[in-house]
Amino acid sequence: MTVSQLVYDGRQTHYARGVEQQKRDVAMKKVSVSLHELKQQALRIYFSVLLADQQQELLKTTQNTLKTHLERVHRAIRRGMHLPVDST
Question: 0.70 cut: is pTM over it?
Answer without folding.
Answer: no
